[in-house]
């Protein structure tokens, strides 16, 4: 894994400021503490921070072809690089290293923009072709590795692994994008392609960008999408067999490394499945890492230990302090823009633990999106069945009225907490799903923002992100449509961002076999009934894993990787909440309704409501503003 930066003078061949490029590069030192180098020629500059994983001796970047006319700066792993190298050598290309980076250079020479279709792995890279006078940017299909870019006001294209590097540029606007703020308080993260700044963007997963010198600023082009194309008919037994074979192969190709390798093991289905496959492929015990919590409502360490014992792994577990909230300001610096997933705290800690023993760790991320594991899919499908039985002309006014008038009863047993369900039933599939996953509802955000800020949004609403993806969805059934939405939003914007920053903060490379694009494509073509059957999510995955994992691992209630925010905000963080939400920084920003901020704080701390998620999002936003003020 690495940190990359680059600059291209789109207008000509002005010299790149070496000191600026070096400063940008060094902001990402944590991503690659082993080595660093810069490459400059008139109009072009690359910087690279290296975490050595494959070909430690000769894999230093930026790296070029034989005559230096093509240079690449790359972050990631191309798992099929050996096969590609053999093919490229047969075509006459000469290799000087054993690393996967050089494959990108020669693949570009051989196949041009189509080279990304040949790569199997996780990657983000910038490539300069001097003969064609162009810069080519590419990001992997699912967005495992990040890539930020900006067209600056003074005519440069710049890119980097993290937003903090682009912030060094004098020609980039750092005005906050109001739409990104609206998105953040709806989703808890800022979905691709926006960033918090109006002058910078993320290159979306499965996209490329080709910028020629002298041409107008280029726009990204999509090169891949999840197909959701049904397979030829197979028996359930055939599906189970092929699923395990494909999973085993996706794990196998991710075991190549010249450094110590292990796995995260939470005790959930996905990480346990990965560890089971690793154990079957390894002659020595697999290194596994997990963390535990004193509160049994949040602790899965016993389940992790059960899997570790079954597969005889070298297991390491540490218990996290139940009041491990000291990372709040650290997280604000890691993520560079507001990020409200509080499970970033335990994720940071498990990466810290893993790095004590390994340099590469496999994770189980992606299984819930691929195989419909989230409970919210079950609820959404139940709501969709009701929608199908009641004409829209009756359904919208009936449930809309019930949703408006039914009290929000956070304190009541679940069966009486029907307000959100009524509100969802009054909407269509996408709007209902958006409403269900939103950190703060439309009504809450309407109260949260000041009149001036709402006016600046000019009618924009965060649901437009999901509407845009739904309009392009290749899926035809409701469940696949919702999975597609998560694969485009929640997975790259939250899950993969969280893991990338937390792992790279400790110079740890994380590989995700469940997001192997060939596996994702195949799973997408399975019937929805094999993913969500009745109330059982990941149905076919669990059935396939029955010979490999205990029944109570496969079929226990999903817990998630959460922290006790509600009690923190009424106890040890009580004053921090009041100081941050009711203090001068949010007030002076002019974005927020101060009366409503006070209402959120008072009602949560009195126990009347559970506003822990909105309060956490506001704490992280205030921490971001504080970092900005001192940048």
Question: What can you tell me about this protein's structure?
Answer:
The chain has 29 helices and 19 strands. The chain has 631 residues and is α+β, with helices and mostly antiparallel strands. It has two domains: 2-222, 4-Layer Sandwich (Glutamine Phosphoribosylpyrophosphate, subunit 1, domain 1); 229-563, 3-Layer(aba) Sandwich (Rossmann fold), CATH 3.40.50.620. Strand 11 and strand 12 form a beta hairpin. The radius of gyration is 24 Å and the shape is globular. The model is unreliable at 411-416 (pLDDT under 50).
Features:
six-stranded antiparallel beta sheet; 44% helix; 631 residues; alpha+beta; Rossmann fold; Glutamine Phosphoribosylpyrophosphate, subunit 1, domain 1
Concise description?
44% of the residues lie in helices and 15% in strands. By secondary structure, the chain is of the alpha+beta class. It is globular and about 70 Å long.
The count of domains is 2
The CATH topology of the largest domain turns out to be: Rossmann fold
Which CATH top level class of the largest domain fits? Alpha Beta
**Would you identify the CATH H-level superfamily of the largest domain?**
HUPs
What does the largest sheet look like? 6 strands, antiparallel
Which percent band covers the strand fraction?
15-25%
Shape: globular
Q: Please report the number of helical segments.
A: 29
The whole-number mean of residue pLDDT values reads: 91
Question: Secondary-structure blueprint of this entry?
Answer:
Layout: E1 2-9, H1 18-26, E2 35-41, E3 44-50, E4 63-64, E5 70-78, H2 81-90, H3 101-111, E6 121-129, E7 134-139, E8 148-151, E9 156-160, H4 163-166, H5 178-187, E10 201-202, E11 207-212, E12 221-222, H6 236-252, E13 261-264, H7 269-281, E14 287-293, H8 301-310, E15 314-320, H9 328-335, H10 344-355, E16 360-362, H11 367-371, H12 375-389, H13 392-405, H14 419-425, H15 429-437, H16 442-448, H17 451-456, H18 463-472, H19 478-488, H20 490-504, E17 509-511, H21 517-524, H22 528-531, E18 532-533, E19 536-537, H23 539-545, H24 551-554, H25 565-570, H26 574-581, H27 584-589, H28 594-605, H29 612-629
Parallel strand pairs: 13-14, 13-16, 14-15, 16-17
Antiparallel strand pairs: 1-3, 1-9, 2-3, 4-5, 5-6, 6-7, 7-11, 8-9, 8-10, 11-12, 18-19
Helix pairs in contact: 2-3, 6-7, 6-23, 9-29, 10-20, 12-15, 12-19, 13-14, 14-15, 19-20, 26-28
């Amino acid at each position: 894994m690495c940190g990359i930066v680059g600059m291209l003078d789109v207008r000509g061949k002005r010299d790149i400021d070496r000191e600026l490029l070096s400063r940008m590069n060094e902001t990402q030192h944590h991503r690659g503490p082993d080595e660093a180098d810069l490459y400059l020629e008139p109009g072009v500059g690359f910087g690279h921070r290296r975490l050595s994983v494959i070909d430690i001796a000769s894999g230093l970047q930026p790296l070029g072809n034989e005559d230096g006319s093509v240079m690449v700066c790359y972050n990631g792993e191309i798992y099929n690089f050996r096969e590609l190298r053999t093919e490229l050598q047969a075509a006459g290309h000469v290799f000087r290293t054993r690393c996967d980076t050089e494959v990108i250079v020669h693949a570009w020479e051989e196949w041009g923009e189509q080279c990304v279709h040949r790569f199997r792995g996780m990657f983000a890279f910038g490539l300069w072709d001097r003969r064609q006078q162009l810069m080519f940017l590419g990001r992997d299909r699912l967005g495992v590795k990040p890539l930020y870019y900006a067209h600056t006001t003074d005519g440069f294209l710049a890119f980097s692994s993290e937003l903090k590097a682009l912030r060094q540029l004098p020609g980039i606007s750092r005005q906050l994008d109001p739409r990104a703020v609206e998105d953040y308080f709806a989703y808890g993260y800022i979905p691709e392609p926006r960033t918090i700044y109006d002058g910078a963007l993320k290159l979306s997963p499965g996209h490329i960008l080709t910028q020629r010198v002298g041409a107008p600023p280029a726009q990204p082009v999509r090169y891949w999408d999840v197909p959701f194309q049904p397979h030829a008919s197979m028996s359930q037994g055939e599906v189970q067999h092929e699923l395990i074979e494909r999973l085993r192969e996706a794990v196998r190709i991710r075991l190549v490394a010249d450094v110590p390798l292990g796995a995260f093991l939470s005790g959930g289905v996905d990480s346990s499945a990965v560890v089971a496959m690793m154990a079957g492929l390894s002659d020595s015990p697999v290194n596994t890492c997990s963390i535990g919590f004193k509160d049994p409502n949040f602790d899965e360490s016993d389940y992790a230990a059960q899997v570790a014992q079954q597969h005889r792994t070298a297991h390491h577990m540490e218990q996290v302090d139940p009041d491990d909230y000291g990372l709040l300001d650290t997280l604000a610096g890691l993520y560079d823009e507001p990020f409200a997933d509080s499970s970033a705290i335990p994720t940071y800690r498990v990466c810290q633990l893993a790095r004590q023993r390994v340099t590469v760790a496999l994770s189980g991320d992606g299984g819930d999106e691929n195989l419909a594991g989230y409970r919210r899919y079950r609820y959404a499908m139940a709501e969709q069945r009701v929608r199908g039985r009641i004409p829209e002309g009756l359904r919208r006014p009936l449930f809309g009225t019930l949703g408006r008038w039914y009290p929000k009863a956070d304190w009541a047993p679940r069966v009486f907490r029907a307000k959100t369900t009524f509100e969802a039933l009054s909407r269509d599939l996408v709007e209902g799903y958006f409403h269900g996953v939103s950190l703060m509802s439309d009504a809450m955000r309407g109260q949260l923002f000041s009149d001036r800020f709402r006016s600046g949004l000019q009618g924009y609403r965060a649901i437009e992100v999901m509407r845009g993806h739904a309009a392009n969805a290749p899926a035809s059934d409701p469940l696949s449509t919702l999975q597609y939405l998560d694969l485009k939003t929640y997975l790259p914007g939250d899950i993969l961002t969280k893991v990338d920053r937390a792992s790279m903060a400790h110079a740890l490379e994380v590989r995700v076999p469940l997001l192997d694009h060939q596996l994702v494509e195949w799973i997408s073509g399975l019937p929805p009934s094999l993913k969500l059957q009745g109330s059982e999510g990941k149905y076919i995955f669990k059935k396939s894993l029955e010979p490999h994992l205990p029944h109570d691992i496969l079929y226990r209630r999903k817990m998630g990787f959460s922290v006790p925010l509600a009690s923190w905000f009424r106890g040890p963080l009580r004053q921090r909440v009041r100081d941050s939400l009711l203090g001068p920084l949010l007030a002076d920003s002019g974005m927020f309704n101060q009366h409503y901020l006070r209402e959120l704080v008072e009602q949560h701390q009195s126990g009347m409501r559970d506003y822990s998620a909105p309060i956490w999002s506001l704490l992280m936003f205030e921490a971001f503003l504080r970092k900005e003020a001192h940048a």
